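Obj: model holo form, ligand = magnesium ion.
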Amino acid sequence: MALPFNQLVIASGNAGKLREIRHLLAPLDLEIIPQSALNVPEAEEPYCTFIENALTKARHASRHTGLPALADDSGLCVDALQGAPGVLSARYAGEPKSDARNNAKLLEVMQGLTQRQAHFYCVIVLVRHADDPEPLIAEGVWQGEILDSLRGEDGFGYDPLFLDAKTGKTVAELPLDIKSRISHRGQAMARLLHRLERLAT
Ligand SMILES: O=c1nc[nH]c2c1ncn2[C@H]1C[C@H](O)[C@@H](COP(=O)(O)OP(=O)(O)OP(=O)(O)O)O1
Ligand SMILES: [Mg+2]
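Output (holo structure tokens):
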């Protein structure tokens, strides 16, 4: 695929996410640049929807760098908690962000709950420039359930608590290539790449 640009800034400071995004974009002929490499400060994420936060992060990185930028806003939504932690997933247990404290808080909040269905949600936004009136947008959802203790070492965030029904494993027990094939992020990226193909020359 010949893209209309050859550099792409990734508007994320999350190392786990960056690793997955790099893996998902590896087939493309693109230079992937994490925003930290260009000294982009972390953007505010004040909105109550994932899409608004993703757009804000992508625009912010593109404005700071003058390059096309891709942002991922994602989170865990638990049915019995009316979709919480949702857009607050990264800061569920407060500042500074901590996966370990977020997992501990989720376990505590869900103690004794029998309804444990949840999903990961991801929206990916790509802007070709900061004022792009036609951002590329794609979503993905991954259904599963929340365990009552941590299992597995891989991945990041809520991975050790999220059981994938099909494999019977937590996400933290899945290797990167398998997670990438089935995850909310993998689905969103596959859809985004499909849209990118239409721009390709
Ligand atoms: O595959 C995943 N496996 C486990 N947990 C996940 C996943 N995907 C999102 N999550 C959870 C944890 C993360 O902290 C939060 C995202 O919050 P989100 O604001 O999108 O990311 P972030 O603040 O960590 O980095 P940044 O905004 O710089 O991309 O949702
Ligand atoms: Mg964030």
